[in-house]
TrEMBL record, chain A:
Region (Disordered): 307-343
InterPro entries, A to Z: DH_E1 (IPR001017), PDH_E1_Alpha_Subunit (IPR050642), THDP-binding (IPR029061)
Cited CDD domains: TPP_E1_PDC_ADC_BCADC (cd02000)
UniProt-listed Pfam families: E1_dh
GO molecular function: pyruvate dehydrogenase (acetyl-transferring) activity
PANTHER family with a match to the protein in the record: PYRUVATE DEHYDROGENASE E1 COMPONENT SUBUNIT ALPHA, PYRUVATE DEHYDROGENASE E1 COMPONENT, ALPHA SUBUNIT BACTERIAL AND ORGANELLAR
Keywords linked to the UniProt accession: Oxidoreductase, Thiamine pyrophosphate
Protein's name in the database: 2-oxoacid dehydrogenase E1 component subunit alpha
Sequence ranges assigned to domain Dehydrogenase E1 component in this UniProt record: 42-318
Gene3D superfamilies: 3.40.50.970
GO biological process, one term: pyruvate decarboxylation to acetyl-CoA
Cofactors that this protein relies on: thiamine diphosphate
Species whose genome carries this gene: Haloferax mucosum ATCC BAA-1512
TrEMBL record, chain B:
InterPro entries: THDP-binding, Transketo_C/PFOR_II, Transketolase-like_Pyr-bd, Transketolase_C
SUPFAM superfamilies attached to this UniProt entry: Thiamin diphosphate-binding fold (THDP-binding), TK C-terminal domain-like
Keyword Oxidoreductase recorded: yes
A GO BP entry: organic acid metabolic process
Cofactor: thiamine diphosphate
SMART domains for this protein: Transket_pyr
Gene3D superfamilies named among the record's database cross-references: 3.40.50.920, 3.40.50.970
Domain Transketolase-like pyrimidine-binding positions: 18-193
Protein name: 2-oxoacid dehydrogenase E1 component subunit beta
Swiss-Prot/TrEMBL keywords: Oxidoreductase, Thiamine pyrophosphate
Length: 343, 346
């Protein structure tokens, strides 16, 4: 059972994530209108938003501790927020600032926060092997920490995912794989790339439990994930979970989604896991005032993070040469120089 | 099937200018119309038309059997292209970003590139691997690399890097007709995308008819007597901009666009170096053990006595950083090129 306090926490995380991304849209479009130029404005580069995915991040991470590891995909914000990644420093990273989580080197697809054991990768499915490694380390050190790898349904055709399932299974490692099925791999609908609509069935080939949560019902996700995390923590091995989520925005900002039927876009917008969880809260006796208070707190936190991030300094260009190695060799192959660094 | 003939084409076709993406698509479509064995596979290449518009319109003309969206399984579909090529077809397989080669490198360098040799020439692999390269739009370490040198280093792949629409079309015809595997690396910033504006150079007049540009023929984009600048891809345009700035200072730079790395047109480089005595190599790939070092080595091997100074500009052996000031620092800019040429000229 997932108690009301946990549901309130999940709700706050989900509202935070949704509002955060809506605000990022505003900030991202600065300098990109009327003509959209991906490299213009205070947030350049690709931006993959996860509005409609919140139930999965919150429903899974509610069971995790700081010492549990999470690896995320290129669409990571809702998961990072649910895992407790520092929102101010994450935002500063997205704005490319010196005080960002990664000193401006990573950007939104490559967020690393060792304080809460969170990392993500812009290459799909490639967070799976490191999650298996974190689980392996936990097992070798006899801790009861677990690892969770999140990936999209488009990523489950990658070798990196399937190989990870097998490696985790044969060593009974404490890892949970979470597929976020939003039906679309950029422009490719699921039925064009696989004959198996239920991705959780891929667990069966490795003799692992596979469970599909057929709606973005945060409570249902939390119940399934609770069992999977407990199973991992108790030393009983991996689980694969697939959660039906919805892509409320394009694959990335600027994606006009010309390939996607209008009805599908509308359906995604009508289903809202956040409203559904608010109803669940009410049925647990949480008042509308309480819910409003949570929402206000979440919005305030988002605004604080964005305001703080925008005040942060940009990195000095010379910072580009730092951090290639933890122990830099005495004579680097290339020294930073005056002309674009390369001499 | 005409071979390159600029005089004729420029006279007849100066009105019609194409973006690099349109020019690429035109060559692919021509080959698909004329050879049933040509087909194309990749992620988001059908309805989307390629994330960088490298396949726009092909689905409408040729249908899903020949314009195939594939699962995000690069090992499987790039390897399948190898197998289909060995079976006598001429597949084109698109790797969305070159940075994604990591998940499928075995199919690329152990199968695609080596099977001809390891079979003692009894098999061939007539396929084209198209892929988007390059930074300048703040996409960070996993989506901004060119990796030109990585592919050129490993034997068995021809490596093509167009910098204009005219070259993109002619090189694509050559790539598809070639009996060997060709890695066709197109720079995102040159494609003429509305959402990632190109510099003015890559959009050029393009003949409607098919034509080929032979591999291994560099293009001298600007004739000059003072300093040789050898480059490729996006940096051809930055070097041309730098050269026109330098003109005001009375420095006459010669700019060479390599167009293909494998085979490499060493003769054109040596001829130029013998004339100018100085060499600047500009590359958007990592500096060490890569393209710049190779070009300088060839110049040293072939024209050491004529060389008085060399310099190179490349990514200074760091992953591509995200933040704008950091990315600007590591990717050579027009001003960096102009400054390096001035240094050499002094």
């Amino acid at each position: 059972m997932v108690g009301v306090n946990k549901l309130k926490t999940m709700y706050e995380q989900m509202v935070t994530a949704r509002h955060y991304e809506e605000r990022l849209v505003d900030e991202y479009l600065v300098g990109k209108e009327p003509a959209f130029d991906i490299s213009a404005g205070p947030i350049p580069g690709e931006l993959h938003l996860a509005a409609g995915h919140e139930a999965s991040g919150a429903g899974v991470c509610i069971h995790l501790r700081n010492d549990d590891t999470v690896t995320g995909p290129h669409r990571p914000h809702h998961i990072a927020i649910a895992k407790g990644v520092d929102l101010k420093r994450m935002t500063a990273e997205i704005f490319g600032r010196e005080t960002g989580l990664c000193r401006g080197k990573g950007g939104h697809m490559h967020l690393f926060d060792p304080d809460v054991n969170f990392a993500c990768s812009g290459i799909i499915a490639q967070g799976c092997p490191p999650a298996v490694g974190a689980a392996l380390a936990a097992k070798k050190r006899n801790t009861d920490a677990v690892a969770v790898a999140f990936l999209g349904e488009g990523a489950i055709d990658q070798g990196g995912f399937l190989e990870s399932l097998n490696l985790a299974a044969v060593h009974d490692l404490p890892v949970v794989f979470v597929i976020e099925d939003n039906d679309w791999a950029i422009s490719m609908p699921k039925d064009r790339v696989t004959d198996v609509a239920d991705g959780s069935k891929r667990a069966w080939g490795f003799d692992l439990p596979g469970v599909r949560v057929d709606s973005d019902d945060a409570l249902a996700v939390a119940e399934v994930a609770g069992e999977a995390v407990m199973r991992a923590r108790d030393g009983n091995g991996p689980t694969l979970i697939e959660v039906q989520v919805h892509r409320r925005m394009g694959h990335f900002m600027g994606d006009a989604e010309a390939y996607r039927p209008e009805a599908d876009i509308e359906r995604a917008k009508q289903r809202d896991s956040i409203d559904r969880l608010a109803d669940d809260l009410r049925s647990h006796g949480v008042t509308d005032d309480d819910i409003d208070e949570i929402r206000e707190r979440a919005h305030e936190r988002v605004e604080d993070a964005i305001t703080w991030a925008k005040k942060q300094p940009e990195p000095d260009p010379e910072e580009a040469y730092e951090n290639v190695f933890t122990n830099p060799p005495a004579t680097a192959a290339t020294d930073g120089g005056e002309n674009g660094g390369a001499n | 099937m005409a071979t390159e003939s600029r005089d004729v084409t420029e006279a007849a076709e100066t009105e019609r200018e194409l973006t690099m993406s349109r020019a690429m698509v035109e060559a692919i479509a021509w080959e698909m119309r004329n050879d049933e064995d040509v087909f194309i596979m990749g992620e988001d290449i059908a309805d989307y038309g390629g994330i960088f518009s490298s396949t726009t319109g092909l689905l409408d003309e040729f249908g899903r059997d020949r314009v195939m969206d594939v699962p995000i399984s690069e090992t499987a579909y790039l390897g399948a292209a190898v197998g289909a090529a060995q079976a006598g077809m001429r597949p084109i397989a698109e790797l969305m970003f070159v940075d994604f080669f990591g998940v499928a490198m075995d199919q690329i360098y152990n199968n695609m590139a080596k099977n001809t040799y390891m079979s003692g020439g009894t098999m061939s692999v007539p396929m084209v691997l198209t892929t988007a390269v390059g930074g300048t739009y703040n996409d960070a370490g996993q989506h901004s690399q060119t990796l030109y040198g990585t592919f050129a280093h490993l034997p068995g792949m021809k490596v093509v890097v167009p910098s204009t629409a005219y070259d993109a079309k002619g090189l694509m015809h050559s790539a598809i007709r070639d009996d060997d595997p060709v890695v066709y690396m197109f720079h995102k910033r040159l494609m003429g995308l509305g959402w990632m504006p190109s510099p003015s150079g890559p959009k050029t007049a393009v003949p409607k008819d098919d034509y080929t540009i032979p591999f291994g023929e560099a293009d001298v984009k600007r004739v000059g007597d003072d300093v040789t600048v050898v480059t490729l891809g996006l940096h051809v345009h930055r070097a041309m901009e730098a050269a026109s700035q330098l003109e005001d200072d009375g420095i006459d730079a010669e700019v060479i666009d390599l167009r293909t790395l494998v085979p490499l047109d060493t003769d054109t480089i040596l001829d130029s170096v013998r004339k100018t005595g100085t060499l600047l190599v500009v590359d958007e790939d990592y500096q060490s053990f890569g393209v710049t070092g190779e070009i300088i080595a060839r110049a040293a091997e072939g024209a050491l006595d004529d060389l008085s100074a060399v310099e190179r500009l490349a990514i200074p052996d760091v992953p591509i950083p995200y933040a704008r000031p950091l990315e600007d620092e590591v990717i050579p800019g027009t001003d960096d090129i102009a400054a390096a040429v001035r240094d050499l000229h002094e």
